[in-house]
Design brief:
Leucine-rich Repeat Variant, globular, single chain, Serine Threonine Protein Phosphatase 5, Tetratricopeptide repeat, mainly alpha
């Protein structure tokens, strides 16, 4: 390595004074590709990378690409603190480089530096001029560059020092200037603000004081449907966290959106917002099911009604939202409080399946699986009895329905069927259905019935869940349980040898 290290030093020294930088960069790139990760780190720590940064100052596309490749390799091998400490000036200069590729290179390294590193976030927070350059990158047409800038600013807002720097007068001015440069850039700024808002109470307060949240909500109440759709999606993100959901309620956003959804049939433009509105209130219902049913009972009813919608996008969103609400035990109890509405809807879903395209079939089947799924910690007499009734509402012979799915010709449908079977395998009443249905256990242990790997994996997971379930020993006989354990220990790709088959035949 010593000789190689000398060669790398000499090559960089030559680059500093040579007119043949492109050829030397090419040699350097080839040399680096031949090194181990450890050796690249050694080289990166001894070479003066400022020389390589200087080669970015060119109009030759090939030289620029080579310089970015070499810098990407070397910077990626350095500790983030070293990159910022030794090459902060070069990084800032590169952020105003006309080449998007060069900008992306240093933004990627900065993003790597601050990911999971509070100390680096605080260090970056002190570099005010650098932060302004990062904000300016939000305005670029190249999405890859803008995404790194967005990620960096989100990380910045995750710490107290970074939050102060993000909403300092200088950075705020840069954000406001960026927002004025068109819809795309403005919504990139909103994305940063929303991410900071959901991170903490402090982030939410700072974002509110900045005025950006107020501007975003004004667009939600405007006449531009496309802008409303984008803001609605971001508002849904705010609804995912308790502190920001409370804020939305205090700002009157919940009541405003509830009225908009209720009146959607009378407003042709609002119909475009229906899937997003349903998704929004699904998140609210999942977080606060009791409050949702008390304050907005008509909206919960509308979610069930979406199954009969002519627009499949509305059907899919509505049913998936019901499934999302049911991912918590409180959500399940809220749906149970509606009487027969949920089991009737589940039966209608099954009846509707034959007329739907495969993608929509899978979405509805996954919804059914979410509704029936019970974590072991949530299993009690009430919840088990409730989900069993829902399963039995699917069809007069619900286990035949599940097995028919697992034998469908399309892998996507079979995979959804195995997901349903997996749900059954994780609770006592489901295990009883599996054990008592003729031929189901034998089917699960037959490795020849499935050739698609994803389906084979899913089928094997059903057996694994049966064996691992704490209730399996009380539901299944010792012989069946031993067979399943042996099957699992042998693995999903086990094949019996010829000698083993011959001995078994002779006996």
């Amino acid at each position: 390595m010593a000789t190689n290290l000398d060669w790398f030093k000499q090559t960089v020294d030559r680059i500093a004074v040579s007119d043949s930088r492109r050829e030397l960069l090419s040699e350097l790139k080839v040399g680096l590709c031949g090194l181990s990760v450890r050796d690249v780190t050694t080289v990166a720590n001894v070479l003066p990378l400022a020389v390589i940064f200087d080669t970015l100052n060119t109009n030759e596309k090939e030289q620029l690409e080579l310089a970015c490749d070499v810098l990407g390799k070397l910077l990626g091998a350095l500790e983030p603190s070293v990159v910022l400490a030794q090459y902060g000036q070069q990084i800032q200069h590169t952020l105003i480089h006309p080449s998007p590729r060069a900008k992306e290179l240093v933004l990627r390294e900065l993003d790597r530096a601050v990911t999971g590193r509070v100390d680096m976030v605080e260090r970056l927070s002190a570099e005010q001029d650098l932060l302004v350059c990062i904000v300016d990158c939000l305005c670029l047409e190249e999405l890859s560059v803008a995404r790194y800038a967005i990620s960096l600013l989100k990380h910045l807002g995750s710490s107290p020092a970074g939050l102060t720097a993000l909403y300092s007068p200088v950075t705020m001015q840069a954000l406001q200037t960026a927002s004025s440069k068109g819809d795309i850039v403005r919504f990139r700024v909103y994305e940063v603000v929303v991410a900071v808002s959901v991170e903490s109470d402090e982030g939410l307060r700072a974002s509110q004081n900045s005025g950006f949240l107020g501007g975003m909500f004004s667009e939600l109440k405007g006449d531009d449907v496309l802008a409303q759709l984008n803001v609605l999606e971001m508002t849904t993100t705010l609804a995912l966290k308790q502190h920001s959901l409370v804020f939305l309620d205090q700002q009157g956003i919940l009541d405003f959106l509830a009225e908009k959804l209720s009146n959607s049939e009378n407003d042709p433009l609002s119909s475009f917002l229906v899937p997003g509105l349903i998704k929004f209130f699904g998140n609210v219902a999942q977080s606060k099911p009791d409050e949702m049913i008390k304050r907005f009972p008509s909206l919960v009813s509308m979610m069930f009604d979406t199954l009969d919608a002519s627009d499949l996008a509305v059907v899919g969103t509505g049913m998936e939202t019901l499934g999302f609400i049911a991912t918590t035990l409180k959500g399940k109890y809220m749906l149970q409080s509606l009487g027969t509405r949920l089991p009737e809807t589940m039966r209608k879903m099954v009846e509707k399946l034959p007329s739907l395209p495969i993608e929509m079939k899978v979405r509805l089947l996954n919804t059914i699986a979410n509704i029936l799924q019970l974590n072991v910690s949530d299993q009690n007499n009430q919840s088990l009895s409730m989900t069993k009734r829902w399963f039995e509402a699917l069809s007069p012979q619900p286990m035949d329905f599940v097995m028919a799915l697992c034998r469908q010709p399309f892998p996507e449908t079979r995979l959804a069927g195995f997901q349903l079977m997996h749900v059954l395998a994780t609770n006592p009443w489901g295990q009883e259905y599996i054990v008592r249905a003729p031929g189901v256990v034998e089917y699960l242990m037959d490795r020849l019935t499935e050739s698609v790997k994803s389906c084979k994996d899913a089928k094997f997971e059903v057996v694994r869940s049966l064996v691992a379930s704490p209730s399996s020993s009380t539901v299944m006989s010792p012989d069946v349980l031993d067979q399943l354990r042996q099957f699992m220990e042998q693995g999903e790709f086990y094949a019996r040898g010829e000698t083993e088959v011959a001995i078994e035949g002779a006996s």
